[in-house]
């Protein structure tokens, strides 16, 4: 099967005209019980029983034609709620008493639905805003690890970057399809834990929550560690005597401020765009300085650094680091939920992956060419000190301080959804107080963990191996096959899915082993010192 055909199928399956997306009503896909409440209101107002009108319902993905096992429709092709209305209509011929009882029961369900119904989420994010949200999360600190990953793999790392970008785009599309597995009129899921529960029940939800929360909170720890490290390096030259751990606490406090203010993903648009621009500046500075000041120029009396075509032993470990550079799965459901035109999601995710891959290739090729096997992580520690390096460190620090609240926001939104922390249930003042308290507690815990494990490179490898690889390559494919069935994919896509699972498994197992060994070595070295 030609690659172009496969790409066309991945991008276009279930995504016809973007103009037909749910932007028409600027609301999320309604739950069946909310639809029942809406129709029941019409019943009470107009009198006659009416059929469920799904004209205003919208879904960005069509259900495959052979999808039957996990569909919410019965064998007759009707949704269960349509059967309820049909039974209510048929009861008119049975007797007035039964009809009254059915209507009373329905009104009781409606009242319960009104009490627990979630408020509609705003769908007001355009293409650029959604693109910026995704890229701001993806292209963060991972870009500083790419030259070091190339030193582990050799020049074959270029192929790994391209492959990882394509895998990220593909699994990003599968993730959103899983949210809509119940069909055009079904309930849209909201997060990875809900996908896990729909696919594998309670234990699937628990497993997905573990990896999801480990990724969200672990990545935030990395951002605090890196920010504290860079600020310490910058201010130590000015005679400031505060330690790196103190600066990490200050960074955590700064990150807490937007966490306390922002409530929805759509409110982080300005922060995401600024974070994107900061990352671009960092990549440009690192690339230009690597080319202008390579290792042989900085150290003319030292032997030239080595370069290899391929280093097989280092591929599994470096693969986990490169995969981390493309990971951002936990925010995808929330970004898509805020999009004005959700059918543009495949274009958004692939545009983001292509953009990130180009940036990674620039900094990776330049850094490995300039410093070879002598490059360190983060690569900013390899380039010469001076104004450009200082600017780059300031910009990457600003970026991670901005990206951390966005990463935490996806975690907060899922918790608030699960615990029903909403103004409708608690009232505006109480909801704000509860939300502020538990968000502050989470930031304090993340800061404490960051202070305990200040080894950026190895900690990055461990988090990316365990959580990021699982969320990025394994869970989307496994849950998609479970929800839709293996028959939904043609043979060539099944082969690709097996390849994606194999890549994810290798990166997860070997990367975790190597990262744990390095963390133990770091701890032993710190104790000996």
Commentary on this structure:
There is one protein chain. The protein has 529 residues and is an all-alpha fold. It is built from 19 helices and no strands. The N and C termini lie far apart (58 Å).
In short:
The protein is built from 19 helices and no strands. The chain is mainly alpha-helical.
- Given the helix and strand composition, which structural class is it? mainly alpha
Low-confidence stretches: 14-118
Share of residues in strands: under 5%
Query: Mean pLDDT across all residues, rounded?
Result: 76
How much helix, percentage-wise, in residues?
A: 55-70%
Give the end-to-end Cα distance, rounded to a whole number of Å.
58 Å
Total number of strands: 0
**Quaternary:** single chain
Give the ordered list of helices and strands. HHHHHHHHHHHHHHHHHHH
Biggest sheet overview: none
Which value, in Å, is the CA radius of gyration?
25 Å
Shape estimate: globular
Number of helices: 19
Keywords: Membrane, Transmembrane, Transmembrane helix
Pfam family, one: Aa_trans
GO molecular function: L-amino acid transmembrane transporter activity
InterPro entries: AA_transpt_TM (IPR013057)
